[in-house]
From TrEMBL:
Pfam families: Churchill. It comes from Castor canadensis. GO terms for molecular function: zinc ion binding. GO terms for biological process: fibroblast growth factor receptor signaling pathway; positive regulation of DNA-templated transcription. Signal peptide: none annotated. This is Protein Churchill isoform X1. Gene3D superfamilies: Transcription activator, Churchill.
Amino acid sequence: MRQAKSQLSRAFVSWKLWRTFHANGTAMCGDCVEKEYPNRGNTCLENGSFLLNFTGCAVCNKRDFMLITNKSLKEEDGEEIVTYDHLCKNCHHVIARHEYTFSIMDEFQEYTMLCLLCGKAEDTISILPDDPRQMTLLF
Ligand SMILES: [Zn+2]
Ligand SMILES: [Zn+2]
Ligand SMILES: [Zn+2]
């Protein structure tokens, strides 16, 4: 019993460490953006950059285009997760890490976005036909 408990708390501690690390990694740099994690309503970007929120690179002071690197797509429990980094084109300073998820929950498609630069957003779209005439045809 005691052993199981200590194992559990150790797992919890490393999870907390990972979370802290991940949060620090995601925070990257708030100096390059106008507003950190702005609320974007239901605008989920799977690609690209929200340039309006970019005030300029805090390292080289240039307001240039951004590069997108380290793009990856993975699937976890039926959820698709797209991640990529926003980089300063001039000095390759990492401005933000972008995360976009897509999943199907029952009859809904769910989209989420989390990015220091592009902000946070979520959207839910019904995959059922919402035409009432089509509904009556089913009965
Ligand atoms: Zn920066
Ligand atoms: Zn730069
Ligand atoms: Zn982004």
